[in-house]
Specification:
Largest sheet: 8 strands, parallel
Order of helices and strands: HHEEEEEEEEEEEEEEE
Helix content: 10-25%
Strand order of the largest sheet: 1-3-5-7-9-11-13-15
Distance between the termini: 96 Å
Number of strands: 15
Shape: elongated
Radius of gyration: 25 Å
Strand content: 15-25%
Length: 196
């Protein structure tokens, strides 16, 4: 069998070497975010049960992958996690009570309740929709956003909230619990009762 001319073999070798170099460079210089996300997802498996619930109560120094979808509940109670993923979907409940989280992500979907009691969250996103109860007890929140929708009960005890926002919809009850609310706009809808 005749050999290919020397120039053709050299050309093929150079193409192969170039392709190999690109492949190695690609694997070495993959953006760190992908690597970190992969590591975080592996670590997250240690905190996930067979129902898809993620239990990170009292945890320290964990960074959650972004985006993140939790098939069950996400429990971050009393954790020192300060930042949530920019895109977070929780198909169960979100518990941030006593956590170091300071704000909710803009792209947040929660199919159950949201518990922010005694967390470091200081404001809520405009148009936030909660499909269960919403607890703001003991938070630094002083003002609720317009168009807030709560499909369950709203708990405001031990907050400095002094007025309810326009176009607030609460399908259940509102529990003020001593919050100094004095302004109740006509444009609010409450399916249950307002308790002092």
């Amino acid at each position: 069998m005749a050999k290919a001319p020397h120039s053709a073999r050299t050309h093929c070798y150079r193409q192969w070497k170039s392709a190999l170099t690109i492949a190695i460079a690609s694997s070495l210089f993959t953006p760190a975010s992908y690597a970190n996300q992969y590591v975080s997802e592996l670590k997250l498996l240690n905190y996930t049960d067979s129902y898809g619930n993620v239990f990170l109560r009292n945890t320290k120094n964990i960074e959650l992958p972004d985006p993140l979808t939790v098939k069950g509940n996400l429990n971050l109670e009393n954790s020192n996690i300060e930042r949530l993923p920019r895109q977070l979907t929780v198909e169960g409940n979100l518990n941030l009570a006593y956590s170091a989280v300071t704000r909710l992500p803009q792209q947040l979907v929660v199919h159950g309740y949201i518990n922010l009691a005694h967390s470091q969250v200081s404001y809520l996103n405009n148009g936030l929709q909660v499909k269960g109860d919403l607890s703001l007890m003991g938070t630094k929140i002083t003002k609720l956003p317009p168009y807030l929708f709560v499909d369950g009960n709203l708990y405001l005890a031990n907050t400095a909230i002094s007025e309810l926002p326009k176009f607030l919809v609460v399908k259940g009850n509102i529990y003020l619990g001593g919050a100094p609310v004095t302004i109740f706009p006509k444009e609010i809808t409450v399916g249950g009762k307002i308790y002092q």
